[in-house]
Amino acid sequence: MGHIARWLGRALFIGGLTLTSAWSEGLYNPKSFTLDNGLKVVVLENHRAPIVAQFLWFKVGSCDDPLGKSGIAHFLEHLRFKGPSGSASSEIMRQVEAVGGSQNASTSYDFTNFYQVVAKQHLERIMKLESERLGRLQTLPEQAATELKVVQEERRMRTDNEPTGRFVEALNSLFYRTSPYRIPPIGWPEEIARLTLDDARSFYEYWYAPSNAILFLAGDVTLEEAKVLVDKYYAPLPKRPVPVRTRLGETIPLSGQTRFTYPAKDIQVPLLMRAYPAPNYLDDNGGHRYTAQLIENMLGAQPTGYVYQQLVEKQKVASGLHVDYTVFMRGPSSFNVILQPTQNTSLETLEKALDECLRSFAKEGLTEEALAKAKSRMLASIEIERDSPLAGVDNLAQGLVMDIPLEELDQWDKKIEAVTLKDVKALYARILAGETHLTGLLVPPHKDASATKKEEKGARP
């Protein structure tokens, strides 16, 4: 901590590689270069263990799904693991497992990623397969039909048959009026059912180009070793143009206090969720990127966060808590609090306690001492994380897919240290001062009546 990143020289051309940055004495000390086809490569050397992870992040997610084809980005994530016998798509899962490695993939609103973790001696073998997958979509029609059923079952299991999943989905569709964030990344059921392999191929050709991806190599690998392998397997992929992503605005933003009640016969416990409109990482020239993370920690850290201390430890009106402020979103963000009441606490009592807790935080919880403790917690967590050979990948990748410079991301600790109490107070007041928010209640059917009477006209089913 406390170091200042240094620029170590001008750009160099090495084979098919353009060395764009290599600095030291930062938080993670990443080194990066860019291929002539546009693929950005980031190397995080960490020689604590003889393993290497390959992460491929794409600047495309469910928000880029074409109108009427929700779920296509997620469907495509599944299809990249399917192909003819012997193809890279069909082999990569089997070969990673054969060498004792691990792998996974995920689709978010703003990005899609794939990763494999293997012993160092197997990196080249796995990189060859991943580069071949990037070259083209290899799925067969019959495989796509089968995988579509898998996606439909995944939706039934995680959302349709899960009351909390249905509740959060309904709340998002009310909070985000026009933004694609109102649509679940997995897609709407009737639109998933209509997805085809041709849809996936079109989406793949449109977005899955080397210039729209970031390759991370983390662990027991040097910059020189990475250059040799990447130049061999990824550099030959042709350069293709990708469309410009538009910023996701909200043409009809939430205003006033909106409420809705979601009765569900299959719930185990009721829930209360409060969502406030909040600025994202781009607003005010990025002035809230680090302040937002501190507010989230000050309120929601367990067991030391203010809301947890007040509602769970002291008042004992909540048995569960989750505070979330995801500032790294291309579109409008939100500040969310999810609470589970204790057995003898009504949602009405819990809601009043939450309101008072958030007000009292502004009056007595926003102190220099509380801010210092939050900074200490966050910086300590990073120090612990750095012991992992894969440290830093998620933190750096989520910023890079938002086009935040790598140099800035590597100075995360110093950015956190620089946040002032004035910054925190200003952002907190901006979120809560107008008291614009959406309150959702997940309740058993017989507890719906009193809450329904309070439902305001602004709420939509």
Characteristic key phrases:
single chain; 461 residues; alpha+beta; Cytochrome Bc1 Complex, Chain A, domain 1; 2 domains; 9-stranded mixed beta sheet; 5-stranded mixed beta sheet; 18 helices; 20% strand; globular; disordered N terminus; disordered C terminus
Give structural notes.
The chain is of the alpha+beta class and 461 residues long. The chain contains 18 helices and 14 strands. The chain folds into two domains: 228 residues, Metalloenzyme, LuxS/M16 peptidase-like (Cytochrome Bc1 Complex, Chain A, domain 1); 198 residues, Metalloenzyme, LuxS/M16 peptidase-like (Cytochrome Bc1 Complex, Chain A, domain 1, 2-Layer Sandwich). A hairpin with a 4-residue loop joins strand 4 and strand 5. Helix 1 crosses helix 4 and helix 1 packs across helix 7. The N terminus and C terminus are likely disordered.
Reconstruct the topology from this structure.
Elements: E1 6-7, E2 12-14, E3 17-24, E4 31-35, E5 40-45, E6 51-58, H1 72-79, H2 88-98, E7 102-107, E8 112-119, H3 123-135, H4 141-160, H5 163-175, H6 189-192, H7 197-207, E9 213-219, H8 223-233, E10 257-263, E11 271-278, H9 283-286, H10 289-300, H11 306-314, E12 318-325, E13 333-341, H12 347-365, H13 368-385, H14 393-400, H15 406-409, H16 412-418, H17 421-432, E14 437-443, H18 449-454
Parallel strand pairs: 5-9, 10-14
Antiparallel strand pairs: 1-3, 2-3, 3-4, 4-5, 6-8, 6-9, 7-8, 11-13, 11-14, 12-13
Helix pairs in contact: 1-4, 1-7, 2-3, 10-17, 11-12
